[in-house]
Amino acid sequence: TPGRYANRIAKGKFSINGTEYQLAINNGPNALHGGPEGFMNQNWKSEACGSHVKFTYVAADGEEGYPGKLTATVIYSWNDNNELTIELKAESDKKTIVNLTNHAYFNLDGENSGSVLDHELQLMASRYLPTDDTLIPTGEIAEVKGTPMDFTAPKKLGRDIKADFPALVYGKGYDNCWVVDNWHKHNLSKIAVLESANSRQYRSTPATGWPAALKARAVAVTRTTTVLPSSVRECPTLPIIVISPRSFLAWVKCMIKP
Q: Is 165 exposed, middle or buried (0-12, 13-18, 19+ CB in 10 A)?
């Protein structure tokens, strides 16, 4: 679970109520996934109960440069229909920014089975975010049609991954954000289907309306749902997640099912 702010923040800077905060720089000129000591590198308290396990982490005020003591909670639930549900919650004692996500990688053929580039992916997203060469969005929301970014119909991950296209060059493959189509607040909707002909397995992923970030490497693929990267600073047209004291943010990040 990356945090306290998943994905990139340009130059590691953001402002709240006129106060500017400087974060640790750990990805080129930018801050990534909360910094070098982000939530994914911390020990979380765990509690197992029946079909779910709950993880809790308390980040100190000022940790990695972020304001506010923030309590993050992640609950993983498994049911008899082989559905995995991931629920996240964040509370802070000061106004702060937060963007939690799941960053697990999947190879549907199993461990040590080789490349995922023959996996077929479909995304319910007809637009994506072009970036600069440090993977910070330019502010444009572009159509995928006619580009290697088009997964509106099922397509093998490896078909276009080596195309001479800016997003693929900058990301060294797919390391991009797509904007979910037909999002409605507080509603779950299917945003992706990943399928392997070898294993005859697939995973469909209903999620809340954050854009779906995809990263495809040779042996695994991750689909995370998150607010648009760097929306806290350089792209005022993109949304930002700020929570205030005595309030909390809670959402079902994704449901993964056969």
A: middle
229-232's contacts with Cβ under 8 Å and 24+ in sequence apart are 229/7, 229/8, 229/9, 229/129, 229/135, 229/136, 229/137, 229/177, 230/7, 230/8, 230/9, 230/10, 230/30, 230/136, 230/137, 231/137, 232/5, 232/9, 232/14, 232/97
Nearest to 125 by CA among 181, 196, 73, 87: 181
Among 196, 137, 189, CA closest to 167: 137
Q: Are strands 155-156 and 84-92 parallel, antiparallel or unpaired?
A: unpaired
CA-nearest of 143, 99, 109, 124 to 253 is 99
**% the chain with pLDDT above 70:** 78
- Dump pLDDT digits (tens) for 73-119: 999 998 888 888 888 889 999 999 998 888 888 888 888 888 889 99
Full-model pTM: 0.85
User: First CA to last CA across the chain, in angstroms?
Assistant: 23
* C-alpha distances in Å from residue 222, one per residue of 24, 124, 186: 25, 16, 23
Tell me how far the alpha carbon of residue 216 is from its chain's centroid.
Answer: 13
Residues 36-75: tens digit of each pLDDT? 999 999 999 999 998 999 999 999 999 999 999 999 999 9
Q: What's residue 31's pLDDT?
A: 94
Neighbours of 26 (CB within 10 A): 17
How many Cα neighbours within 13 Å face the side chain of 219? 5
Most distant CA pair in the chain: distance in Å? 54
Specify which residues 256 forms β-bridges with.
84
More confident: 178 or 231: 178
